[in-house]
Amino acid sequence: KEINRLCGEAGEFEVMYNDLLICGNYDAEYREVQGGDHYYGIWEMVSELVSESVVIGGIYDEEGDELQASTSELQIMFN
Q1: Fewest CB within 10 angstroms: 9, 10, 46, 74, which?
Q2: Mapped to the 3 state alphabet, what secondary structure does the chain carry?
Q3: 33-45 pLDDT, tens per residue?
């Protein structure tokens, strides 16, 4: 599952959706592989996505109360 909207950059995020605040952390691991263009017989090195993970820290309603069941359900969707 690739998280395209985060553009492969690791870090914390917050998303507002239908009066809910979703907080989490995204992590991506890359490795350098041969690819892209080659010049004079030498290939350039490019980054390749190895793994990524999302940890949902919490989902909160407009009063600031955590919706623990929704947090757990969303975490399961990312695994």
Answers
A1: 9
A2: CCCHHHCCCCEEEEEEECCEEEEEEEEEEEEEEEEEEEECCEEEEEEEEEEEEEEEEEEECCCCCECHHHHHHHHHHHC
A3: 877 666 777 778 8
